Amino acid sequence: MFDEAVAPDATVRTVLLRLSDRYPTLREVLWDPASHDLAEHVEILVNDAVLGITHSLDSPVQDGDWITLLGQYAGG
Questions:
Q1: For the stretch 2-26, what's the b/e string if a residue is b when 16 or more beta carbons lie within 10 angstroms of its beta carbon?
Q2: Closest Cα to residue 30, out of 15, 50, 48?
Q3: Which parts of the chain sit beneath pLDDT 70?
């Protein structure tokens, strides 16, 4: 768990990029090197909502928001 200060213009993307810059192993797992987008095997939750439903990488982040990283899952 990381507690990050967020700038007024912070987005999900900027928070994740800042963490990735500090933790190279996270960068390798989180980002696709060819597309520079999220790797397909990673799920991101913003305040318990899956990224792509109510939030995108460019959604604003405010103090108190939660960003959760999960390995992709499948099931039925």
A1: eeeebeeebbbebbbbbbbeeeeee
A2: 15
A3: 73-76
Quick one: tokens of 20?
A: 């990735």
Boundaries of every domain in the chain: 12-71
- Would you tell me how many other CB atoms lie within 10 Å of the CB of residue 30? 18
User: Is 39:26 a contact under the CB 8 Å cutoff?
Assistant: no
Q: And the tokens for 2?
A: 């990381």
Whole-prediction pTM = 0.85
Q: Count other Cβ atoms within 10 Å, centred on residue 54.
A: 11
SS percent in the chain: helix, strand, coil, step 5: 25, 25, 55
pLDDT at 74: 62
The answer to whether 61 and 51 are in contact (CB under 8 A) is no
